[in-house]
Design a protein that fits this description.
The protein has nine helices and no strands. It is mainly alpha-helical and 174 residues long.
């Protein structure tokens, strides 16, 4: 890469590193794999940066991350992994009451578990919309699907999340 092209690549992609990691983490459901996926996605993005035609660098980069994540998932489909989540299992330095912290962590864990149980395409749409704040059109660009499909996935994902969380409130297992 020439110095000018490298500067343009960095200006276009580096501001979106956190969003890229967040999407990869939710899609792979593995923090360490997400790091590898983001590294692979940035490698691919740099390699094919000449094909970037301007516009929204975030949507373009997240599309690359999405493809890298699904490639990673396809390779490891038969090998489910357990992930230790420090946020859920952390035990120190909390300033609120133990009761409040226990309820908060329980709620976060339930939402996280419900989100992780969604099919990857629904989880992707929910993460991009609710956690990354992308518009429906940006999500359509990232996922390379029509905007109606995005709307449908978000609607179905929200409904499944609501059903899963409602069943937990009634005392059922996720």
């Amino acid at each position: 890469m020439q110095p000018a092209e490298r500067r343009q690549f960095e200006q276009t992609t580096l501001p979106h590193l956190d969003a890229a990691y967040n999407l990869a983490r939710w899609l792979t459901q593995d923090e360490h794999a997400a790091e590898d996926v983001v590294q692979e996605a940035y490698y691919r993005a740099a390699r094919y940066f000449a094909s970037f035609r301007g516009g929204d660098g975030r949507a373009w980069l997240l599309g690359v991350v999405r493809r890298a994540s699904f490639d990673w998932l396809a390779k490891r489909r038969s090998q489910p992994a357990l992930v230790f989540d420090e946020d859920i299992h952390e035990r120190g330095g909390e300033s609120a009451s133990p009761e409040f912290l226990a309820i908060r962590k329980c709620d976060q864990a339930l939402v996280r578990q419900a989100l992780e149980e969604l099919p990857p395409q629904l989880r992707e749409a929910i993460v991009l919309r609710e956690l990354e704040g992308l518009s429906y059109q940006e999500i359509a660009d990232v996922a390379a699907v029509p905007i109606g499909t995005v709307m449908s996935r978000i609607s179905r994902g929200r409904k499944q999340l609501q059903e899963r969380l409602a069943s937990c409130a009634e005392g059922e297992e996720l």
